[in-house]
Amino acid sequence: MATTDHRKQSLYFPEDMLEEIQREATRQDRSLSWIVQQAWKVARADIRKMPSVNDVLSSPPRPAAVTAGPVAAPAAPSLVAAAAPNSTEPKS
Fold it and tell me: What is this structure's pTM?
């Protein structure tokens, strides 16, 4: 049987997040550690898509956009409502 590495690590969560994790652990009758491990397994693909701090800091500056002048916005379509004559109103 393979042995599991049980290294300890302190993790810090905002109080409201920790309370939510604790409620979920209680609901599932699981440990906090198990809940966090499962959350990592579910979220890791999305987290890996996020740029690292080094990617953001080392990226070359983007060139400023060059515009020739103000561009007119397209005119909004106007709505014209024609009132149909009401047959119950007396004609004047």
Answer: 0.53
